[in-house]
Design goal:
The chain is α+β, with helices and mostly antiparallel strands. It has helices spanning 4-8, 11-20, 37-45, 55-58, 60-63, 73-85, 89-107, 118-135, 142-157, 163-189, 195-201, 211-226, 229-242, 244-252, 257-267, 299-302, 347-364, and strands at 23-26, 31-34, 50-51, 115-117, 203-204, 207-208, 273-278, 282-284, 287-289, 294-298, 369-370, 378-379, 385-386, 390-392. α7 packs antiparallel against α8 (118-135). The radius of gyration is 21 Å and the shape is globular.
């Protein structure tokens, strides 16, 4: 797992892991890696046997408090509902309008040029803008917040940190905390319709949340909303460019777009690892994992398990075993959003966000193709996505007409 070869192309190892060592132990980080769909789903859905206690070490120091994944029972139910309300109903409709405007503004300067890096020019700023809009934070601060967010995300998603990188990540968390403190004070006294205001005014067991509770949930939402979005948008276009027949079908029939997004999430999930801790010893494929051990669920490998999906290494938006309608719900067969109690709270938002952006971009990026000389590369073990995705397309005049 920690080799350069695995980092370069984890998909090349998935079948071998599932078939030969479905319980793979990494002594350097004293952790177990599970690659079969049935084992991963078992861990993610049995939250009594496989807990989230490791987040005390993996997340709390930079989240500045407990995150949703650490909560259970009535507390988890109540606080999850508060967050979910910020991503559904009329709130979601308002966000879709903001997402469309935001995406159009970001893309506008590149249309006359006929060239854009979908990751660095568009995806990364868009994802942070969208998260800030949901929270009600100033979009003008996006670069500053993005820098702090990157440090927090690095802490949560790294399998091994040097002391220097650890200090950097903790410094980012402190700066983000300091930035949020006056915002929380202001929203407590003058709440609006944004998610931070909802967190500040919500009650749990008759008691409002502390500033620490609110800060942790804000950072939780910021990472959950921003981290996968830019990766999924870029990966969606990569797969459609690589499969021109399916690209043509999606262009002709916009109803296929949701299936293309769902298949992108299955084929190349942006979150590749989800950690849990064993309460008691557990047996997988004849191998005993001891109590108190850290177990990493390999989402990428599980999503390509032939016991769960036919011809799993093929990208196919028409696959009958995916089920587009359920792919963004708790009934999803793929595990890109996790599963069980701690399934991603923003799944509906993610679908609306990526569908809105893709529906806007597809007609604008006519004859879209990779820029000359481009060599594709992905990075990341915990979360994974393209380093860049420079694309050429038919330029569009400011009037909306195409050149030539």
């Amino acid at each position: 797992m920690l080799s350069d070869e695995f980092a370069a192309a984890p998909e090349h190892f998935y079948a071998r892991l599932r078939e030969r060592t479905p319980v793979h132990y990494e002594p350097a980080i004293d952790s177990y890696f599970l690659s079969r769909h049935q084992d991963v789903k078992r861990v993610l859905t049995d939250h009594d046997a496989f807990t989230t206690e490791m987040f005390q070490v993996r997340a709390e120091p930079v989240m500045r408090g407990r995150v949703l994944a650490q909560m259970t029972g009535a507390e988890h139910t109540a606080k999850r509902k508060i967050v979910v309300r910020g991503f559904t109903g009329s709130a979601l409709q308002d966000q879709i309008r903001a997402i469309h405007t935001n995406a159009a503004e970001l893309m506008a300067p590149f249309l006359p040029q006929g060239r854009v890096d979908l990751v660095n020019d568009f995806g990364k700023p868009f994802a942070v803008h969208a998260a800030l809009d949901v929270l009600g934070l100033d979009r003008a601060d996006w670069q500053q917040v993005a820098g702090w967010h990157a440090g927090v995300a690095e802490f949560v998603t790294s399998l091994a940190l040097t002391p220097e990188r650890r200090r950097h990540c903790l410094d980012c968390a402190e700066r983000l905390d300091a930035y949020l403190a006056p915002v929380i004070r202001q929203r407590r006294s003058r709440p609006g319709e944004d998610l931070i205001s909802k967190l500040c005014t919500a009650e749990f067991d008759g008691v409002t949340m502390t500033d620490r509770d609110v800060t942790a949930l804000i950072i939780n939402v910021l990472i959950a909303a921003a981290e996968p979005a830019d990766k999924t948008i870029a990966l969606l276009f990569k797969h459609l460019i690589d499969h021109p027949g399916q690209m043509a079908q999606v262009r002709r029939d916009p109803d296929l777009l949701a299936a293309a997004i769902a298949e992108t999430l299955r084929f190349t999930p942006p979150v590749r690892l989800i950690p849990r801790q064993t309460q008691e010893s557990a047996v997988f494929a004849g191998t005993t994992v001891p109590a108190g051990a850290t177990v990493f669920c390999m989402i990428g490998a599980a999503n390509r398990d032939p016991d769960a999906f036919a011809d799993p290494d093929a990208f196919d938006i028409h696959r009958p075993d995916l089920g587009t309608a359920r792919s963004f719900t708790a009934a999803a067969q793929h595990l890109a959003f996790g599963a069980g109690l701690h399934q991603c709270v923003g799944a509906a938002f993610a679908r609306a966000e990526i569908e809105t952006v893709a529906a806007l971009l597809l007609p604008l990026l006519d004859e879209v193709r990779y820029s000359p000389g481009f060599r594709y590369r992905e990075t990341g073990l915990y979360t994974r996505g393209p380093v860049s995705l420079p694309l050429d397309f038919t330029p569009v005049h400011a009037s909306g007409t195409r050149r030539g």
